[in-house]
Amino acid sequence: MARMNPDxxxxxxxxxxxxVMARQGIAATTxxxxxxxxxxxxxxxxxxxxxxxxxLAEAFEQVARExxxxxxxxxxxxxxxxxxxxxxxxxxxxxxxxGIQTWLDAWSEAARRPALQRISRRLNEExxxxxxxxxxxxxxxxxxxxxxxxAVSWRILSLLDGLALQVVAHGDVIxxxxxxxxxxxxxERELGLPSGALxxxxxx
Amino acid sequence: MARMNPDxxxxxxxxxxxxVMARQGIAATTxxxxxxxxxxxxxxxxxxxxxxxxxLAEAFEQVARExxxxxxxxxxxxxxxxxxxxxxxxxxxxxxxxGIQTWLDAWSEAARRPALQRISRRLNEExxxxxxxxxxxxxxxxxxxxxxxxAVSWRILSLLDGLALQVVAHGDVIxxxxxxxxxxxxxERELGLPSGALxxxxxx
DNA sequence: ATTGATATTGGACACGCGCGCAATAGGCTT
DNA sequence: AAGCCTATTGCGCGCGTGTCCAATATCAAT
Lengths: 204, 204
Prior knowledge:
Two copies of one chain form a homodimer. Chain A has helices at residues 6-24, 31-38, 42-48, 52-75, 81-93, 97-109, 114-140, 149-170, 176-190. By secondary structure, chain A is mainly α. Chain A binds a DNA duplex through residues 1-6, 9, 30-32, 40-44, 46-47, 51-52.
């Protein structure tokens, strides 16, 4: 493989890791898979990453952070709290199966991979904080009712995770559409909003 | 090891598997670990179980079904719907870390272990059905308000799973007590119950 | 053109995995 | 007491794992 400067190389390694992770899940991603994806030797990976745990953690962080940034980006143009919360659900809902499978693997592997656990935990906290900021705004301007912003944020996030989990892990026990609609309805109830306030404008 | 009749032997194998699973999680449970736990050879395990996937699935089913039966048992003596729902939370809450870690592993491994996926899915559906029967009763006798029993049952179950997940996978990002209190509060809101209606009688 | 730094190779290492199989041993029937 | 069924052994096969390292290739500086 052509010689690269270290910064570029690190980028390509993480990109290849993400590709393998998306295809096989974190738990089944190996050094050799990554090397093959990249078309290089396995030794090269260890020249840049001291352990597989670290590499997986960095690749996972990149994936998860992109999701988060995509939501933040979509939120940028919206001012009112309810609109923002609706956008939050819109963007979260697009999450494909492989995205959630990656999270499932992360939560499961966290017990055995310290670096991965740190990242997973931090990202989850950021998701909750983002939700809390939206709800906090809604409570402040009176458009939402809620006496414990932190608790409600964790509840809505957990609801989303728990429903997505059923879709991904168990196939069609519930559909993606049900998970989406049910989580919006749950949030409406939590925040004292009229039914349908968080629904997508156009039926999909 | 002393010769046993097949039925007993299967029992001891599954018991040993459960012990290892509880200690290390499903993902890290190996044939050799189970054999060592049992004090026998690894060949014996394969004499009774055609594949590791099947053994893990059976052990997991036993663990998960016991949890479910424990809830059903505790429910037996309670008649009113709200009381039953409160008991449901009481018994679910005792779930130790290792119990939830097992579920995390099951959800993650489901993508790669067909037998395990079938069991995990079926058990989750039974949990939801149990919840739905309680809520259905509450709606019928007017003690609970809810227009989609199925959706609300899935939401409450997902909420419980999602919050427990945070406790187990990420350590003290939220405490077990918060997860418990918050899930009860969420259910009260979902079902139009006064705040505190589902709280444990005696503070723990 | 030569040197030096280092990106990259490719395979060895020690281990762990699920699985299979010939050999052994224990208990029940005859 | 002899024979038979089969539970149990213990090892080996083929493969996959993360990690490490001496050798090699390649680019930039001299």
